[in-house]
Amino acid sequence: MGFSTIHLSEDGWSVDILDQTLLPHEFKTVRLTTMAEAAVSIRDMLVRGAPLIGATAAYGMALAMRQDPSDANLQDAYDRLLETRPTAVNLRWALDDMKAVLKNCAEADRESAAYDRAAHVVLEDNSICFGIGEHGLKLIRDIYQKKGGNAPVNILTHCNAGALATCGLGTATAPIYLAKIDHIPVHVWVDETRPRNQGAALTAWELGRSGIEHSLITDNTGGHLMQHGMVDMCIVGTDRTTASGDVCNKIGTYLKALAAHDNGVPFYVALPSTTIDWTVNDGVKEIPIEERAGEEVTQVRGLTADGTIQTVTVPPVTTCAANYAFDVTPARLVTGLITERGVAPATRDGLKSMFPEQA
């Protein structure tokens, strides 16, 4: 991909992340040296995407243990990192995983154990992304062959579930990248994904760097394209998947699923097993939906004609904005769940068949 979202610095203990709030116009890494800095990077979305949030939290725990490996600081670091983002379950998964490892270590061993485990989280996510890509590639190949093998596969995605959201190829984009390697022509409809414009700023940036054909569209264009047969499939990511197959993703995903269902367009969700929350059954009723600052809705950041980057306010300055960051797509609207082990029906039994040891 030509970039790394998170890695250890050359000093062997601090952590370098790519500041995604500055993309696509600035490419800058930020060095994390404390758990508090890791927490801020998650809360303020310098890093984002469920898998990458989990990896950053894991390294945040390592930084905490380097500073103070006591039981009290272990619990404090866990609590402070957990409260940064309420919706993405990878955050809790990574923190639970780290805590389980570290609580059984002597304090003198916790720092090295934490760094080892955090590195494992990163490597595991890389492997999971590749597995998702392989299984999703089969779906793209099938559509390509049904089209006669002489026309691009048109894929609509929403938000950024790409390499920038993970430690590897991404989730929703992994099949797309492998399709390019497999010489299957793909064209991606990239939703702008308001209010933070992750599609316009991040997915378009990624795909452009990788030579993937794509077109940026407004968030409300997808239904029109589907009505006119211009979308062959949808692939999106998810920040939390219930045991029954409901998926929670960036706000607006539900509307795309409704349009896909109405027009007979396959709607797939790509997810690592770490985003499955086996404790939740009804996504609409049980998943907490993060509400973020209204300024994300009222303000837009971009590159001006003279080359400067500025933030401007769009509505009247007295206007208040509601900013719900996620919505839930019911399992009945999901064609299939693309996991690292295969494509599962969006049902409890489907997920159990893929991950019996977890269920």
From TrEMBL:
Gene Ontology biological process terms, A to Z: L-methionine salvage from methylthioadenosine
UniProt-annotated site: Transition state stabilizer, residues: C159
Record field: catalytic activity: 5-(methylsulfanyl)-alpha-D-ribose 1-phosphate = 5-(methylsulfanyl)-D-ribulose 1-phosphate; 5-deoxy-alpha-D-ribose 1-phosphate = 5-deoxy-D-ribulose 1-phosphate
Signal peptide: none
UniProt xrefs under InterPro entries: IF-2B-related (IPR000649), IF-M1Pi (IPR005251), IF_2B-like_C (IPR042529), Initiation_fac_2B_a/b/d (IPR011559), M1Pi_N (IPR027363), NagB/RpiA_transferase-like (IPR037171)
Binding site for substrate: R48, G49, A50, R85, Q198, N249, K250
Cited Pfam families: IF-2B
Pathway recorded for this protein: Amino-acid biosynthesis; L-methionine biosynthesis via salvage pathway; L-methionine from S-methyl-5-thio-alpha-D-ribose 1-phosphate: step 1/6
An example molecular function term from Gene Ontology annotations: S-methyl-5-thioribose-1-phosphate isomerase activity
Record EC number: 5.3.1.23
The keyword Aminoacyl-tRNA synthetase belongs to this UniProt entry's keyword annotation: no
Residue numbers annotated as active site: D239 (proton donor)
Keyword set, alphabetical order: Amino-acid biosynthesis, Isomerase, Methionine biosynthesis
Superkingdom of origin: Bacteria
PANTHER family named in the record: METHYLTHIORIBOSE-1-PHOSPHATE ISOMERASE
Entry similarity comment: Belongs to the EIF-2B alpha/beta/delta subunits family. MtnA subfamily.
Purpose of the protein: Catalyzes the interconversion of methylthioribose-1-phosphate (MTR-1-P) into methylthioribulose-1-phosphate (MTRu-1-P). Also catalyzes the interconversion of 5-deoxyribose 1-phosphate and 5-deoxyribulose 1-phosphate. Part of a bifunctional DHAP-shunt salvage pathway for SAM by-products.
Name recorded for this polypeptide: Methylthioribose-1-phosphate isomerase
Gene behind the chain: mtnA
